């Protein structure tokens, strides 16, 4: 080798080196190569001391029965490793043509991440001694710099050689026969033997090729070598080797199986003796076929003469299985019509699988078939054929398995994606159009669990909450349930490479729907309602009485309402519209508020949320829609110091409290009774009364109580003992300390309206009370009243006394 070449010996007795080179799976190819290169430089010094080592996981050197094998990890060599054969005459680059000519085969096994070199024991540069010695240089390139690794091994096969052995390699045919030529004493290059490849004796030897389709002229061995043929004498065996497809070979069919044959006869005339050697190489060229889960390969039973059936043993990757163990391994071997048929199950151990994207996810399998076929002729001499065949299945469909494992009771979609090949990786998941990289971030509510299986596939389980916003939810009238739907698009990548495959799947779940229910809290000032929205709550309307709850309605009634996509919050102050009161006493009362739930489509009331709360207040006033005023008043603030009233009453002294507790009194009376005064304004009407307490000397006015109603809500102001209003009135308690006498008026006073203030009608307290007031016209009240000729309020009163 030239001086500028750097020869580095890979060594490996120490497991430490194997760890350094192979343990870190995250190390990039470039970094692995760099580390390997650096360590190898150091170890090259050890090799000079005669050390013989082997790097586990990076390099394999194996002696087989009829060939030597080198396997190197592509992670250490790069994608395009090169080999050189070395002998005493120099180094020789093993190109594709040179390999077929000289007995080498190189395979890039990308599926395994290996480059494999097989060398025949009779290859061109094998050195023959006590065994077969091989010397090679492995050449790798890193950042434009070549590194040379010397790979040396001597093999001594234990299997005895048969009289004739034929090797059908993937790129050449080789036949060797036992030499029984006469030998003379003399130099090694005597013309009585097949001497070394370049000796002068090769000129006296000639070869002629037998071809049934044409007659070929003889040529000497030098010419034959130039044509790509090799003839040699190695260990007393005559060797003949040829690449496939040479002009002198021919194709034929034997029992329907394609066969390539080359028939060479080597001869030499020496004085009165003619030496002739017949060399025939015949190899099945069947490429294999796929049928019902098996890769099928055929070879003729009688490629060479045989007294009976041939003995067959075969396996994968250089490992033979005896015929008796074939069934246990799942292989098939059958004989029919003088043909041997081998069946390899697609999932056989030792086969290689590769995924491929073509109209869906496909796969193909590669099998490195190794077969030994032995026949015995009539002279009881064996012929052994060794086959190396790479068999590839056609593209096979490889569908993924998807299963909806959702349990609605768990509230979660669960989708199983199985039968994912080991060389296919899930990179992202698209949910209803939104993409999420794999692995999922901890910040999202979805989970993705991967499980690896013993059959070298793996699976994923995706879980998504049913009520997550990413799930499409819609009401199914047909099913009378809420339909939850999730569209999934898996993006998978075939490794190595970045070819994507998209797998789509949709899942649905039906969930029974129920009307919503509010969470309710009683507070001192009213009742608070809270509803946590569900995705289907848009199906309902919420009603306050006969009115639909809206922000405008809430504002009109004095509620506080907050409504967003998550929650509805409604605070209903005490004494606002919608309350019902009962058990009213001086110690408090029960207030009930009801929210109805109505089907938005049918307008039918489905359910309601009714809440009754106990309210304790010192004072309150209620103005009902049916024309009653109920008031609790504490008169302690207006009582003369040290005095305790003997009696309480309203303007009409016959109207007394329903309950008394010291200075606290409870009155409940119709608005149009007990001497109430009616004040009619432009927009509303006010009913007013006064609470009096009697002392030892006189009656004292303590409080004024009043209820005001908007005119627009009144159906009628009075009717015979009947009052109707759409809204509750607004009550007021007004302290008053001026002493006065209670007088039952003998007449009615009507106060005429003035242009400079809002029109009003004042009725003094009286008993019996007014039964009916008829209003003909009121200024600016179209539809209920009409203007008079002057545009002022015109009122006529008609009062009835009991």
UniProtKB/TrEMBL annotation:
InterPro entries xref list: Ig-like_ZP (IPR058876), ZP-N (IPR055356), ZP_dom (IPR001507)
Annotated signal sequence range: none
**Can you give the residue ranges of the ZP domain?**
622-802
Pfam families given in the database record: Ig-like, ZP-N
Query: What name is this protein filed under?
Result: Zona pellucida protein AX 4
């Amino acid at each position: 080798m030239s001086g500028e070449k750097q020869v580095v010996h890979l060594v490996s007795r120490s497991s430490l080196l194997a760890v350094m080179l192979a343990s870190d799976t995250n190390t990039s190819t470039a970094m692995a190569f760099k580390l390997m290169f650096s360590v190898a430089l150091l170890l090259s010094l050890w090799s000079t001391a005669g050390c013989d080592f082997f790097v586990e996981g990076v390099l394999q050197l194996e002696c087989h029965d009829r060939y030597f094998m080198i396997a190197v990890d592509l992670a250490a060599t790069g994608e395009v490793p090169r080999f050189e054969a070395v002998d005493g005459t120099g180094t020789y680059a093993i190109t594709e043509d040179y390999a077929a000519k000289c007995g080498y085969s190189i395979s890039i096994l990308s599926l395994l991440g290996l480059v494999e070199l097989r060398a025949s024991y009779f290859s061109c540069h094998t050195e023959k001694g006590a065994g077969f010695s091989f010397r090679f240089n492995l050449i790798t390139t890193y950042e434009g710099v070549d590194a040379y690794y010397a790979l040396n091994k001597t093999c001594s096969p234990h299997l005895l050689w048969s009289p004739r052995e034929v090797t059908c390699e993937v790129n050449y045919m080789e036949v060797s026969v036992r030499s029984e030529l006469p030998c003379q004493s003399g130099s090694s290059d005597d013309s009585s033997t097949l001497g070394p490849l370049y000796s002068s004796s090769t000129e006296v030897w000639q070869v002629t090729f037998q071809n049934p389709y044409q007659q070929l002229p003889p040529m000497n061995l030098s010419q034959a070598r130039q044509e790509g043929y090799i003839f040699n004498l190695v260990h007393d065996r005559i060797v003949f080797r040829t690449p496939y497809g040479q002009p002198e070979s021919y194709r034929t069919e034997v029992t329907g199986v394609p066969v390539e044959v080359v028939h060479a006869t080597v001869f030499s005339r020496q004085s009165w003796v003619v030496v002739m050697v017949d060399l025939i190489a015949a190899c099945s060229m069947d490429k294999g076929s796929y049928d019902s889960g098996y890769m099928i390969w055929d070879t003729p039973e009688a490629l060479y003469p045989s007294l009976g059936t041939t003995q067959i043993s075969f396996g994968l990757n250089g490992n033979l299985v005896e015929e008796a163990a074939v069934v246990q391994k799942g292989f098939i071997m059958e004989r029919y019509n003088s043909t041997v048929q081998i069946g390899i199950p697609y999932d056989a151990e030792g086969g290689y699988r590769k995924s491929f994207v073509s109209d869906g996810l496909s796969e193909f399998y590669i099998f490195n078939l190794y077969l030994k076929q032995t026949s015995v002729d009539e002279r009881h001499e064996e012929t052994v054929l060794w086959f190396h065949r790479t068999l590839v299945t056609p593209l096979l469909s490889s569908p993924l398995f998807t299963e909806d494992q959702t349990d609605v009771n768990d509230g979660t979609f669960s989708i199983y994606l199985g039968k994912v090949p080991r060389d296919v990786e899930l990179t992202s998941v698209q949910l209803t159009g939104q993409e999420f990289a794999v692995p999922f971030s901890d910040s999202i509510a979805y989970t993705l669990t991967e499980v690896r299986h013993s059959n070298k596939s793996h699976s994923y389980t995706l879980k998504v909450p049913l009520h997550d916003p990413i799930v499409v939810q819609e009401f199914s009238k047909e099913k009378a349930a809420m339909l939850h739907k999730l569209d999934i698009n898996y993006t998978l990548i075939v490794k190595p490479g970045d070819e994507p495959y998209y797998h789509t799947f949709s899942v649905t779940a039906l969930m029974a729907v129920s009307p919503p229910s509010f969470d309710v809290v009683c507070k001192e000032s009213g009742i608070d309602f809270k509803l946590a929205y569900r995705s289907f709550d848009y199906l309902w309307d919420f009603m306050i009485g006969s009115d639909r709850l809206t922000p405008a309605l809430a504002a009109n009634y004095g509620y506080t309402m907050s409504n967003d996509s998550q929650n509805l919050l409604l605070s209903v102050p005490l004494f606002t519209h919608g309350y019902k009161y009962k058990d009213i006493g001086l110690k408090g009362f029960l207030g009930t508020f009801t929210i109805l739930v109505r089907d938005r489509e049918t307008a039918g009331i489905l359910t309601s949320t009714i809440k009754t709360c106990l309210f304790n207040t010192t004072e309150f006033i209620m103005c009902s829609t049916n024309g009653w005023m109920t008031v609790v008043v504490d008169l302690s603030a207006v009582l003369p110091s040290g005095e305790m009233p003997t009696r309480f009453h309203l303007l009409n002294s016959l109207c007394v409290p329903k309950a008394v507790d010291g200075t606290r009194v409870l009155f409940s009376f119709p608005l149009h009774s007990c001497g109430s005064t009616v004040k009619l304004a432009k927009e509303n009407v006010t009913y007013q009364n006064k609470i009096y307490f009697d002392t030892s000397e006189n009656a004292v006015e303590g409080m004024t109580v009043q209820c005001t109603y908007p005119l627009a809500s009144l159906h009628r102001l009075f009717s015979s003992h009947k009052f109707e209003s759409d809204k509750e009135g607004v009550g007021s308690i007004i302290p008053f300390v001026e002493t006065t006498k209670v007088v039952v008026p003998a007449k009615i006073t009507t106060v005429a309206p003035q242009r400079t203030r809002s029109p009003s009608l004042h009725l003094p307290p009286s008993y019996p009370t007014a039964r009916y007031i008829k209003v003909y016209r009121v200024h600016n009240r179209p539809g209920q009243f009409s203007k008079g000729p002057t545009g002022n309020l015109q009122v006529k009163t008609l009062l009835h006394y009991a």
